[in-house]
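Researcher: Structure prediction, please.
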Amino acid sequence: MQSIQTEIAELSSTLNQHNIHYYVDDAPTIPDAEYDRLMQRLIELEQAYPQFKMPDSPSQRVGGLALAKFDQIMHLKPMLSLDNAFEQTDFDNFNKRITDKVGGVEYVCEPKLDGLAVSITYRNGMLERAATRGDGSVGEDITENVRTIKSIPLKLRGEGYPELVEVRGEVFMPKAAFDALNQRQIAKDEKVFVNPRNAAAGSLRQLDSKITASRALGFYAYALGVVEGESQPMAQTHFGQLSQLKIWGLPVSQEVKICDALDKVYAYYQDILTRRSELAYEIDGVVIKVNDIQKQLNLGFVAKAPRWAIAYKFPAQEEMTILEAVDFQVGRTGAITPVARLQPVFVGGVTVSNATLHNADEIARLGVKVGDTVIIRRAGDVIPQIVAIVAEKRPDNASDIVFPESCPVCQSDVERIEGEAVARCSGGLFCEAQRKEAIKHFASRKALNIDGMGDKVVEQLIDKELVASPADLFSLSASAITMLDRMAMKSATKLVAAINHAKTTTLARFLYSLGIREVGEATAANLANHFGSLEVIRTASIDDLLAVEDVGDVVAQHIKHFFEQSHNLEVIDKLLASGVNWPAIEQADESQLSLKGQTWVLTGTLTQLNRNDAKAQLQALGAKVAGSVSKNTDCVVAGEAAGSKLAKAQELGVKVIDEQALLAILQG
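Model: Predicted structure follows.
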């Protein structure tokens, strides 16, 4: 029993120390997986021997029983708010009031965290209680929830701390945790949070502390409150007291700095403002405090704010405005994106008149209509977005946002497959908005493989209006190509020859080059081998397409939509008229498909066969050539320097042959 009690005590101490290394010192000493193993061992022991559970056990951070309501707590010392400065003149006036009364001062500058202010009391080094700010005099008892926040020590570190220490700080939700939380909320079809501040406040005020524990909240201490029973004198500067808190194991922002001159204060403000979007947490300004504690006492308080501190606010990142209209833009891959046209509003340091609405699912989630009053958010250089509507301000004439049925650019049908969030233009070969991507794909190595037709060449051809569709490539002259940058006649002539050479291809490559959604190399080959001709594929029904190997409902709909667009058919006809051709496909005799239904994998370097040729020949015998080994793999061909795929095949007992054996099968 003694050994169990000792192990529990050692595990508790070790895990608490690792929390301080991670959250306070910013220098973790073990991997997360090892931390999790130690925690799991501690929980198992505490469940088996609850009499040995330590009062500062880190296992308390998982949350306890839900509360019926929050109790009220009277603060030992009022928690005051801060006066605000919005312009430099506001801070200049603040500084003048300070210096007029106490002379020259040194300031401490720190980020103004956008979260929830809390008070945490430690008695004899142990966390005793925690409360929200409330009205400044009375707050809510959130002790059980605060215990779940890993960056807050349950026991102070070291020795020499007073009998009673009240710590004040901000609970916040890091940006990454906020994004992850909203993704989980969306997945569960539950309400999302507008911003990290709301998420932090909502998480900290949960009656069920297990919910709080799941929300990955953070904490930074920013001041000492009441201190009783000091064993040694406390530091007489604000910065010194923050340093003392850090020694005791409480996290303090690394951005806190002493500024001994006004120009340094202004420089600090500008630096933090510039780096605002790079910080791991949201801030809405800078807090500037007189460093000398005695001067703070001399300055005193006014109303509910100290005279010795001020919040120098940043331009707001959220504002309200009116959604006046919605336009639809077509992206380079055909995605139809709704763009909100707003009544101009100043937010995040700029005037915003447009914001993204992403897609139809996001519009439905927000419940937004044209005419609504909406909350716009712009953080750093992020594209402004609508994060919520103000429902009570909705006018009677508010109207639904209706997606177009045809592309705003080329009038081809707009396609939205059930289960997909994004609607897309189906006129991929013709649509001006998709032109560059369509031609880059058409000329790529696995498609028509036009040697020398790189991305920059394609972009110049389109920008100079020499090409409007893939068919136009085949009417280019060398003299026209010399209009491109760094393209002399010799290079231009060589490119024309490559274009003409690419006219002779295969039906599978041609189908792949068209850029039909979800139709990759393997599907294109299956379509070609199954139907045998382009004309049959163009007129195939959904049921016909579903009969092709690896073609499911979604792919079949994409293919059907593509060939229903007259614009796409016009481009295909022009390609055929320009001389694009391929050898006829002889329908394979079923008796010749010796590998039909089998899955093969190629790995390593083949010395006598090109990898693509080997793949094509295997497919011609009916095999499916996969990129990874599984229990369903029938055979693995291992060339030279075969690696993990060979090891996986041996582990699963899959048949393995070498290149010579493959050649024998193909020749046989």
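Model: The radius of gyration is 34 Å.
Researcher: Thanks, that helps.
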